[in-house]
Amino acid sequence: MNRQFAAIALCGGVAVLASACATKGYVREQVGTTETRITQRVDAQETQLKETSDKAAANTHAIDAADQRLQGLDGRVTEVGAVANDAKAVANDAKKDAAASAAAQRDAETAFTQRFANRNRYAMVETKLVYFDFNKADLRDEGMGELEEVARALKADPNAVVELQGFADARGSDRYNYQLTRDRVDAVVRYLVQRHGIDLRRIHAVGMGKATLPAGEKGNKETFAKSRRVELRLLAPQS
Fold it and tell me: Using a CB cutoff of 8 Å and minimum separation of 24, what contacts does 30-39 make?
């Protein structure tokens, strides 16, 4: 009886011991599984944190690049604004110049109209003749005395004016003679302006081309010589 009880007790102890061993193994297995899961979760979180950190760095880089582009755009906008301001200033200057030119032109037209309106208020004082050589526009020495008298009269009366009409003889083409007579009156104008300082506005000059011979006169050496001339008509305001 005692042996049976001992055997039962021994079997019971073995069963308890086996059960305890099984429990420890299970616990170790569960702990290992839990550690594995925790490790996996930690690794996954570290991976996510690294990815997040990389994304944050990439975003920071993108933000810096965008900021640089914005700064560049700001610089271009500033440059464009400066160019626009310069263009506006140039346009304003052009408008001012155009307005000034228009005003000057109006003044000139008004002065010309006034002179033309006053032309009939002048009376003839005297006429002088200056002759030229054939095919020449140079002043001759014998004509200087006439020019000196006209210059003195103009200086004596600041309101007096002089009209110049240039002529050529009947030889040559009309076009050539018009230019030749223009050159002859220009020579007289230069003498009065440069030598005596006569105001150019007081001199009215025109090239007439070929001179018309009086009725009945034929073209010869003498009539041709008289045709090659500039007539100076001194005019003074009527009192």
Answer: none
